[in-house]
Every structure is written in structure tokens, then in C-alpha cells.
Amino acid sequence: MKKNFELGKIDFYGTGRKINAVTVKIELTEENVFTACGYVWNIRRTDCVSGGQNLDEIYKFKKNNPIFKVIYEMWKKHHLNDMHAGTEKQEEALEKAGYTAWARDYEKCCEYLESVGLLEDNGYKFGTGWLKREIPQEDLEKIRGLFN
What we know:
Low-confidence stretches: none
Strand content: 15-25%
Radius of gyration: 18 Å
Number of helices: 5
Mean pLDDT: 97
Oligomer: single chain
Largest sheet: 4 strands, antiparallel
Strand order of the largest sheet: 1-2-3-4
Shape: globular
């Protein structure tokens, strides 16, 4: 399932004029993989001035929009839920230690995980594949509700 949400215009550049239309696209696959991306358009809607994983930017303008709030919450929790570099334990340990750029700091992440005994967790070595995290039923219902 795919859906586009037109969320009105914002003053993206802070000029005092709301000239930039906002579109957010979401998808939920048959395998329950969730994705969301945003587009902030130029005045003529011929090109986007901000696009992709920019929902944090859009949040500044649309945090009171009830539909966007649900999309944003689900994006924060479940975007690309089939592409986790580590197990929950591994990723939690890295986040607590302040490692957020896992691809850029892969060697440091591995060294840290090894130092705390988590380089391998249940037979999975950090970063050697993509792990999928299932979306809880309650959140799946919220996501599916966006398509109605």
C-alpha cells in the first residue's frame, strides 16, 4: 500500500510567506515493511527544496497536524524496519554509548560491542546483514489506519 499526503504550505525559508507545499509519502509492503519520506516543494512545484528523510525538518512546521503526528511517530519507530545492522541489544548498547553513525564508525562500533561482550549476539555478528524487526500489532493498526 502506498499513499501521498498533501499537508499544505509552509514558510520553509523563514521569509514570512508560506510558499512551500509539503508532501509526505508512506508505504507499507505485504511483508509489513514501513517507509516514509517527505518533500518540500519550490513555489512552482517543479522541484523539491528538501526531500527524503526530512521528517524531522517537516516536524518543526507540522507537529500539530494530527495525521503528520502519526506518520512521524511511526517513522521514528519503524522506518525501514527490515534494515537493522544489529540486534536490539547491540543497537541499544551503541545508542547508550553515543554511537549513532554506525556505517561511518563501523570499526569503532565493533570494538565497543566486543568490549561489552555484544559483538556477537545470539550467533549474529553486528553489521553482517540486515535484520528485520516486526512492527507491533498496535502500531500496524495505526499505520494501516493512515491508508483509510
